[in-house]
Amino acid sequence: MQLGDWIKETRTWLGKISELPGIETYVLAGEVLHRPKSWMISHPEALLTTNEISQLDDLRSRVLKGEPLPYVIGHWEFFGLDFLVTPSVLIPRPETELLVEQALKGLDQRNDTAWIADVGTGSGCIAVSLAKHHKNARIIATDRSWQALKIAAANANRHGVDSNITLIQTDLLQPFRNCFDLVCANLPYIPTAQLGGLSVSQHEPLSALDGGTDGLFWIKNLLRLSQQVIRPRGRILLEIESDQGNSAMNWINELLPFTEAVLLKDLAGKDRLISIQF
Ligand SMILES: C[S@@+](CC[C@H](N)C(=O)[O-])C[C@H]1O[C@@H](n2cnc3c(N)ncnc32)[C@H](O)[C@@H]1O
Questions:
Q1: Is residue 199's pLDDT more than 90?
Q2: From ligand 1's centre to the CA of 42, what distance in Å?
Q3: Which residues 6+ apart lie within 8 Å of 147 measured at CB?
Q4: Which amino acids bring their CB within 6 angstroms of ligand 1?
Q5: Do domains 3-66 and 78-277 have the same CATH topology?
Q6: Residue 27 has what pLDDT?
Q7: pLDDT given for residue 277 in this prediction
């Protein structure tokens, strides 16, 4: 079988279940053939070996059965870095890059060591991206899930930042007192009642998605802890669901009236991030 024929066939099949069948087809093919997209486009006549066809068909059938592409190939890009992902961790989302951008903007002005927490680190995508881009960052990354911490450790190692990141299994930031200049958190924020209707909940860990009755359970718990963990003039960056902006801001203004909280939008123009300056 020629590469061009496999591409054409796969594009058609994926077109029935995916919004981006072309991109997904090339991602699958690139995974097996270890060739860039430009090569695959310019070599439709390349003959596939039996082994390659069997690997390609196997990956394709997993995607057709509904398994998310990042889990099928075992890695995914975030903030220009490649992260290992397994079903134990949330697949890093592009909207979370806003949190990393804002964190780095705030860190730009300082040369001393910045003590940072990444709460609910999952794959470690936030912690590793910060460590890669800010050499003075010392990061404590926490998660309740031991399985997730193992993936975060592999990613820290993969990107050569293990010495900047300490991984701890704990609830939020329970053991810490007065030690962080910056707290970053992308905690579960989907209201429990909505989870059943979402396809993400069939594949990604519920512990990474379930935000309790109003979706703000973990975020509120973290904010209650915030005064004990944050240093004077510290900052918190919280990713939120796009429809939680107003309720989260009202709650923050009541609980932390002496802080300055700002709501920021993602590239799609949706409320996505709250920055709280102490
Ligand atoms: C939405 S995922 C985010 C993962 C990663 N930070 C990202 O942005 O892709 C939330 C993560 O928080 C963890 N988590 C949930 N509740 C937690 C808690 N109370 N304390 C620490 N981690 C928690 C979950 O296990 C999951 O890995």
A1: no
A2: 42
A3: 86, 88, 89
A4: 89-90, 92, 96, 119-123, 125-126, 142-145, 148, 171-172, 186-188, 207-208, 218
A5: no
A6: 97
A7: 97
Q: Where are the domains of the chain?
A: 3-66, 78-277
What number does CATH give the domain 78-277?
3.40.50.150
Tokens of 250: 């009202």
CATH 3.40.140.10 fits 3-66, yes or no: no
Task: Kindly report the protein residue whose alpha carbon is nearest to atom 2 of ligand 1.
Answer: 208
Amino acid identity at 258 = F
Residue-wise pLDDT for 93-146, tens only, equals: 999 999 999 999 999 887 899 999 999 999 999 999 999 999 999 999 999 999
Q: Which two tokens stand for residue 259?
A: 């802080």
Contact between 81 and 114 (Cβ < 8 Å): no
Q: How far is the CA of 6 from the centre of ligand 1 (A)?
A: 38
Cα of 92 from ligand 1 centre, angstroms = 11
Nearest atom in ligand 1 to 172's CA: 20
Query: 228 CA distance to ligand 1 centroid (A)?
Result: 20
For residue 210, report the distance from its CA to the centre of ligand 1, in Å: 10
The residues near 278 (Cβ < 8 Å, ≥ 6 apart) are 226, 230, 232, 233, 234, 235, 236, 256, 258, 259
Average pLDDT over residues 35-54: 97
C-alpha closest to that of 123 among 175, 79, 85: 85
C-alpha span between 104 and 118 (Å, rounded): 13
- Best residue among 123, 144, 165, 174 to mutate for probing ligand 1's pocket (most ligand atoms within 8 Å of CB) is 144
Indicate the length of the chain as a whole number: 278
